[in-house]
Amino acid sequence: PTPTPTPTPTPIETKTPEDIKNLAILEKSWSQISTQQVAQDSGRIIYLIDPQFPSQSRDAIKKGIELTIGKFDSIIKVRKPMYAIFSTSLAFELAQFEKYELMQKTYLAEVQSNPILLQWRIDHYKQIDSGFKKFGSGGTMPLSSGVVEPAGYYMYFRMHPENQDPTSVLLGAHETGHLMQWQMNWDFPETIPAWWIEGQAQMIGESVAAQASSFAEFEKFIKAQTTPDYGGGFFSGTTKLGELEGDSITRSQFNCPLCGSRLVYSRGKVAIHYLAGKYGNDKVMAFMSTLSRSNRWWQSFEKSFGVSVESFYAEYDSFAKWFGDYFSPGWQNSKF
Prior knowledge:
Helices cover about 50% and strands about 5% of the residues. With about 325 residues, it is α/β, with parallel strands linked by helices. Strands 1-2-4-3 form a 4-stranded mixed beta sheet, with helices on both faces. Strand 1, helix 2 (about 55-70) and strand 2 form a beta-alpha-beta unit. Helix 9 (about 265-280) crosses helix 10 (about 280-290) and helix 9 (about 265-280) crosses helix 12 (about 310-325).
């Protein structure tokens, strides 16, 4: 008789005590967002959509926006104008600013005071016009000029017409995370370090975009983030948050050599997960709401979390290296 082959046993994944401890922190962070009910959007976002915008990307981004707004309904209650521009050309985007007086005033103010932002817009559309089919980008900006509370907000999503990307739910959720930051602290770019600005939006974005019904599903989603697109992936580079803060005086904005890199996304999201998992996401939100240019973040960090910034940075460094090893083995030698 033909011998029956011996079945190959399925390998059992073993977790170390460090894995178990740190996964519990991560699960607590994720669960605080995943368990929140999604409230009805009630049409708070005014969508301005280019007919040439790729349909799959459009639907995915809208889903990310609406899921995030719905989960954080208690924060985004402001009734100020909020626009979302979906565009494939510079002409279409500029035409949207001409439709609304507040949008037009903001654009004219940007042209005069922020040439970098103007050039950023032009460069994006040059990439689209050159035929870069995978191009996609998003951003969130205030509708105002000067140091005053914004009168409204706009998000922009720029894509090549052929970039059909159903995974861009994350892009929509991430940018809505920035919209939430404006609600919590209208001056937040001037009061929060770069790793927090992008890290919190990325942490919220991934937690929402995963649409995971279990923590095991969320783990799979995180492990699938293997590219730097939209800040995904944990790749080579520093794990020192102090190198991702900002300038030496305010320790905020993007004024440091590495602040413009994708490191602020991947390191920042892990930092916010750690804080939310250890101290609670409500405390993370409340901390941000208290900050101002006269009450700098490092001055109130210890009061909010009961630990100094220096001690947190040391704890985080260990957690981040574990995160990289667990979710992106070989991350230290990765090339992006």
